């Protein structure tokens, strides 16, 4: 064991995980590259689990942040009015919402993904006066008690004794062979004998990240929206991981042509890796009374500064085009890998820059990810049995970085399956 890792082993809780998957001490990072203490370079296809979509230490955001700090801008102010927040609110309206013909109120629920999910679930219950929530198999929404209760991962739930209280888990798209999961869902809703009360909300990811890069079809999403409308159920799209460009558009649901009632954003929203979350709420259901849902760290001003700067990348389609072109390249490459190395028994999954390969071979994806790390590529696995190796490059990665990463990936696959 690397002696620099001793401090983590001796002092940090056993719950630590990424220090185990990526056992080295990092010191420096720029764009899609990271370096450890020994100066070894890594290509980052992990992007902070989707929190660093613009790469590390982006110059434009850094410049704005340094300028703000140098001028003694407000750092902490709960939800008082600040210039940094005003700038973000205005820019988010102008660059993101208005051009997409979307109308939402912006709510800052606390710093993390789980905070936005909690606020969405609470608001849906308050607005509808109902209690139940429909969530989906293999969905992931966070680790606090409310968000964990709608998370379809029994390993994470059971240990903490979190039951599926007032939550009904339904099959995600493609989950049930030869059976449209929506027919199944509607049967439950129609059949009073099923015991399923009309829920307050449905919560879903358009592409499940932690659940194994399962991408719902646009048709399925449209039908889900229609079911929600028919039954007066609020649709919550958890875009914490799939949003902010990860699947190719700012919001992951854009190409499906749906308009959720509530949207959860976090991870890459601040652009710079600073904790930040926002819940978008349809104006007519913006029903929390003043202070009814609060938190000390609502809206970090440094995050407002970098998040506003990040929105400059959405003023034209350069970023979206880069994702489109390179996503196809990644998918073609992965298809080639699956064909060339049939030992993987793999299936390519995902959309945009949220892609992966599910291997039927027990433990193989973890072995490939571990080998990749040894060879200088950072990549994680997901899925109920860690059967998927995930490729999450920065959205602005150049050809050189992408090719380097893919070369290392092939080396790793070759070495593991030989
Ligand atoms: N929702 C989704 C879809 C996520 O992927 C995650 C985190 N992986 C969360 C919610 C929870 O976010 P956080 O870890 O910041 O609480």
From TrEMBL:
One Gene Ontology term of the biological-process aspect is: ectoine biosynthetic process
User: What Gene3D superfamilies would the database entry show?
Assistant: Aspartate Aminotransferase, domain 1, Type I PLP-dependent aspartate aminotransferase-like (Major domain)
**Which SUPFAM superfamilies does the record cross-reference, listed alphabetically?**
PLP-dependent transferases
* Keyword entries, A-Z: Aminotransferase, Pyridoxal phosphate, Transferase
Task: List membrane-spanning regions.
Answer: none
What Pfam families does UniProt report for this protein, alphabetically? Aminotran_3 (PF00202)
According to UniProt, this protein's pathway is:
Amine and polyamine biosynthesis; ectoine biosynthesis; L-ectoine from L-aspartate 4-semialdehyde: step 1/3
Report the EC code(s) recorded for this entry. 2.6.1.76
Q: Which InterPro entries match?
A: Aminotrans_3 (IPR005814), Aminotrans_3_PPA_site (IPR049704), Dat (IPR004637), Ectoine_EctB (IPR012773), PyrdxlP-dep_Trfase (IPR015424), PyrdxlP-dep_Trfase_major (IPR015421), PyrdxlP-dep_Trfase_small (IPR015422)
User: Care to name a GO molecular-function term for this sequence?
Assistant: diaminobutyrate-2-oxoglutarate transaminase activity
Determine if Transferase is one of this entry's keywords: yes
What general EC class does the enzyme of this chain belong to? transferase
Q: Which PROSITE patterns match?
A: AA_TRANSFER_CLASS_3
Which domain of life does this protein belong to? Answer: Bacteria
Required cofactor(s): pyridoxal 5'-phosphate
Against CDD domains, the record matches this protein to: OAT_like
Family annotation (PANTHER family): DIAMINOBUTYRATE--2-OXOGLUTARATE AMINOTRANSFERASE, DIAMINOBUTYRATE--2-OXOGLUTARATE TRANSAMINASE
What protein family is recorded?
Belongs to the class-III pyridoxal-phosphate-dependent aminotransferase family.
Its name, as the record gives it, is Diaminobutyrate--2-oxoglutarate transaminase
Q: What is the source species?
A: Paraliobacillus quinghaiensis
Q: Which gene encodes it?
A: ectB
């Amino acid at each position: 064991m690397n002696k620099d890792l001793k401090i983590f082993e001796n002092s940090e809780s056993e719950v630590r995980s990424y220090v185990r998957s990526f056992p080295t001490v990092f010191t420096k990072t720029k764009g899609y590259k990271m370096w450890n203490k020994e100066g070894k370079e890594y290509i980052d296809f992990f992007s902070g689990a989707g929190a660093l979509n613009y790469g590390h230490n982006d110059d434009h955001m850094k410049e704005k942040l340094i300028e703000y700090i140098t001028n003694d801008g407000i750092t902490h102010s709960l939800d008082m009015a600040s210039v940094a927040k005003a700038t973000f609110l205005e820019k988010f309206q102008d660059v993101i919402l208005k051009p997409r013909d979307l109308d939402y109120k912006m709510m800052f629920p606390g710093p993390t993904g789980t905070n936005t999910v909690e606020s969405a679930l609470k608001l849906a219950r308050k607005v509808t006066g109902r209690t139940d929530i429909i969530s989906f198999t293999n969905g992931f929404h966070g680790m606090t008690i409310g968000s964990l209760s709608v998370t379809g991962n029994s390993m994470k739930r059971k240990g903490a004794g979190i039951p599926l209280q007032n939550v009904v888990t339904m099959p995600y798209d493609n989950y049930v062979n030869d059976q449209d999961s929506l027919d199944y869902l509607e049967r439950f809703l129609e059949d009073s004998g099923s015991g399923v009360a009309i829920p307050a909300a449905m919560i879903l990811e358009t592409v499940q990240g932690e659940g194994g890069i399962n991408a719902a079809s646009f048709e399925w999403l449209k039908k889900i929206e229609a079911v929600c409308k028919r039954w007066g159920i609020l649709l919550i799209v958890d875009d914490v991981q799939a949003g902010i460009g990860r699947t190719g558009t700012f919001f992951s649901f854009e190409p499906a042509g749906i308009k959720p009632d509530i949207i959860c954003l976090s991870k890459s929203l601040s652009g710079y890796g600073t904790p930040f979350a926002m819940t978008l709420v349809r104006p007519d259901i913006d029903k929390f009374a003043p202070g009814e849902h609060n938190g000390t760290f609502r809206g970090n001003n440094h995050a407002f500064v970098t998040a506003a700067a990040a929105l400059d990348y959405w003023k034209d389609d350069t970023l979206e085009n880069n994702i489109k072109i390179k996503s196809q390249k990644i998918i073609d490459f992965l298809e080639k890998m699956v064909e060339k190395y049939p030992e993987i028994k793999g299936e390519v999954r995902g959309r945009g820059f949220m892609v992966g390969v599910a291997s039927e071979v027990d433990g193989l994806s973890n072995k490939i990810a571990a080998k990749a790390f040894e060879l200088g590529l950072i990549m994680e696995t997901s899925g109920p049995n860690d059967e998927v190796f995930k490729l999450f490059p920065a959205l602005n990665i150049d050809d050189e970085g992408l090719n380097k990463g893919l070369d290392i990936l092939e080396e790793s696959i070759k070495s593991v399956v030989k």
